[in-house]
């Protein structure tokens, strides 16, 4: 039976059809798909370029209807007389395609999902929004979903539809501002973006998916449909062994790495290593040096490599520069098999302004603030997340959980916390908006950080959170319920600046700045600190750590060895950026390798060996761990000998069953018969001397010392030591 065109257009208006053809219609499901109008069952499809379209029964392939062209732009319609599942048989100029109708599927996201997203408490966004391969009504395909509440129309675009935003417009779920669409017969590996028309009818640049779990390698910008197949982890033993009570009191020694410049293959165009290669080379290297953790500069997808990852746009996707998400999971798995934890740098403070990213995502300031006095970082030319918005807070928390739960990450180091906490951060008077009480504190950021850390510690008790916070903001590492921000550790930037400034002085002048090395202990237990010698200290013209040391080459190395000894003896968890362990002579370049050829020189190889021995001593000696966070485990044995530039620290185990004495001489003069008071009588063995010949030193010193009943420094016993020049020695009380 033949029907009039007016019959096939029933329930529509000409303007609506024209809007659909032009890609302007915000409710495609009202026109497309199967609709019942009284006794008529009408199917409509928008397939520009198709020569003909048949509706066929899914089970039998019986032709139910031959669709007619009702608009020359590619809109087809016909009466089927059937309500059974159906397929389209589409004849294109060069092929015939059979596929299900995307507009035949009911809404997929449940009301609870939508409620939680709007509330900002849906912590599985990586499995809810974005592109999720799944089976719906027995049909394999990909569900696309994206938050764009102020858009007029949103479409999924990709290679599957020639990047034509008219072909797959999505359904709006208005209660949460979520647009969704199931596209049959797609699978993982597809490239895609979202095409958005804003509320004023303007076509925006096609947007990458904010919740994409995979992305093209830069400079390409498309999102990629990631596989939903679970990764086959083999780190069960590691996961079982992780316990929250070990996070604080055990040894934590972190090797900070930029994956793209740890090793470059120069004879292959200076290419970077991928995750599989890094698992084969970086993991055993870090293990051989005794590091407990590898910390990666941000590996979330980011457009500009020169930002080192600190301007990310894909907070759910490992960057495509080094391989697939499965490759990254393999790297983490290999770390865990080697007994090494993985920390990721994570950036919830700001994001870049690239038009295909989050900036004015649906034509409005959706993720950022509208007012640049709140929403723009002039230091970095980036946009600031609007932490007063529930959906944004939920997006960020879900990102953090994606790494901790789905990639088995052991900790996150939160970047630029200070910039989040202060509304006037890097702003002059009149260039910022006070909080509701007229103050400079960012109350929304405070609430967000507390909530973030509470959720993470509840869901991931094994994981720890580290704050890069450079101000005197109080209680960064105190629990939220006690008024703190809830971090587990805070980078001790003050210690780093003070001690590096001291080490840069010529030894002749160090006595005038003696307090720089002791000042950190005044506040050492006000927070739970990590001592960082990070990438920030070896870039932007600051030179290398070795280059900061005074003297000739031998003296520079001796100073650096002594400094490392002091750092590993000092309370606080340890962090060292790559290249520091071999005394790289020039500052870090993200476009080049660490200068591994230095290891051909015995003095640089010796410093590398020292770092490994310091790590092993730290992890083996409870006396070097307890005082990291507990003041009972530390005391100055010598703190006031400015004239000789000598310091001595006494570290003890929790039950006082073991002691370690650490003595540093920061002058090039050996000290003979230097007496230090100790709490226990008997023999003290030198277990590490940074001046040992195996480290490139002069091999001055002694192997042991016996106490004498000669009081010193308030102790009844003392030892007489031969302190090497520009060196630190560790002595262990003989049990």
UniProtKB/TrEMBL annotation:
Active site, per annotation: 415, 468
Involved pathway(s): Glycan biosynthesis; glycogen biosynthesis
EC number: 2.4.1.18
Catalytic activity: Transfers a segment of a (1->4)-alpha-D-glucan chain to a primary hydroxy group in a similar glucan chain
Enzyme class: transferase
Tree of life domain: Bacteria
InterPro entries: A-amylase/branching_C, Branching_enzy, GH, GH13_cat_dom, GlgB, GlgB_N, GlgB_N_E_set_prok, Glyco_hydro_13_N
Domain Glycosyl hydrolase family 13 catalytic: 256-603
Keywords attached to this entry: Carbohydrate metabolism, Glycogen biosynthesis, Glycogen metabolism, Glycosyltransferase, Transferase
PANTHER family: 1,4-ALPHA-GLUCAN-BRANCHING ENZYME (PTHR43651)
Similarity field: Belongs to the glycosyl hydrolase 13 family. GlgB subfamily.
Subunit structure: Monomer.
Protein name per its UniProtKB record: 1,4-alpha-glucan branching enzyme GlgB
Gene (name only): glgB
